[in-house]
Specification:
Length: 384
Amino acid sequence: MDFSLTTEQQLRVGAAKRMVEDHIEPILDANDRDKGLPKAAVLKIMAKAAGLGLTSARIPRAGGGAGMTMLDYGLMGEQIPPAVGVILQTHEATTTRMYHGCSMEQKERYLSDLMGGQRITCTASTEPDVGSDPRGIKTSVSEATDHLVVSGSKVWISNALVCDVMNVTCLLTRDNGSSGVVRVLVDRAESDFETHELDILGLRQSPLGNVVFKECRVPKRNVCPDNGDTAKLLTLVWLANRPLIGLMAVHLAQKALDAARSYAGIRKQFGRYIGGFQLIQNDLAEIETAVLTSRLVCYNALAAIDRGERANGLSAMAKRYAVESCDRAIALAMRIHGAAGLSRELGLEQLARDVRTISIPDGTPGILSLIQGRELTGIDAFRG
Ligand SMILES: Cc1cc2nc3c(=O)[nH]c(=O)nc-3n(C[C@H](O)[C@H](O)[C@H](O)COP(=O)(O)OP(=O)(O)OC[C@H]3O[C@@H](n4cnc5c(N)ncnc54)[C@H](O)[C@@H]3O)c2cc1C
């Protein structure tokens, strides 16, 4: 087993780092740190990300995508600040779902622009009463003579404020009284819906919003074909999403480690550098251990997915372990900084807010441990 990166992987990581330094950081700095990025800024980032294959990572080359391994995708994603990482991953994951689950005609209408980063997309599943348990969706789609009508609310939707087309999970009730979950593409250029910005703890530059569909007219051609595979498609993407989010936590904790290590070497108390105190060295050792083990558990899950192995437990483990370990690591780094750790100027408090925020999407820690437990025992603790 060789833990070193190949030359190609080193090049990918270097390219992602340069994109962050030359394009993403300047855009984040030029915009309000407490508000979702405006659409023009997101499109600029998308264009650069598309050039590196990050808007189509999971779409095979034969389908016009970048066809990356999940490990390579993770290595690159780890370099990107999570407020932007969530924008890109939401867009790319939705594009992947569309690639696998849309009709030929729908793909021809959307995929090229989405993979090229010229239009933005997202997935809207969560509702006020539907979170971890995806059953019980209430957003309805019904058939009128020449169009469809979508009614209901979606909450906590990444990219909601800036998207051009939204992949919306709806409940379709048919004429014979039967009902089923379908996906409907709601395109902002042809359908009218409201979005409201959310004001939350972290990832504040990510354009997260609630969505309201008030008898929203949608062309009939926008219902995705019913292959009975909505849940399968969501799972396909979730499996890799989880370690990819875990690597966002690693990005944050690595920054905390770099800051704490450097501060311990310049801050003096009791006539000595604080880095010379045993308790501070213990904290630094704990932080570094969290960064390294979190990174490895995420790489391991992504490599298992690349090998085609069942990775439900590994993927859940990776996100939960990485987010929780990195959360603690960031708290320790803040402690090493004393009062300075709390200042907005230094930015450690933002790392703490961001890591808390990424613990929720694509599986809360509790849900992830139940998924892992189900793999270990063969018993489904969700539904008995
Ligand atoms: C930053 C961010 C981005 C998001 N992006 C999107 C998006 O793009 N699209 C989208 O559709 N949604 C998105 N979401 C929503 C996210 O998927 C949900 O918030 C998540 O699924 C949890 O649902 P909930 O918040 O309703 O919590 P709930 O499901 O109500 O859970 C509340 C608590 O109960 C626990 N719990 C629930 N069931 C069990 C159980 N069986 N056993 C033990 N504990 C349990 C949970 O772990 C949690 O601690 C996003 C959320 C955030 C914060």
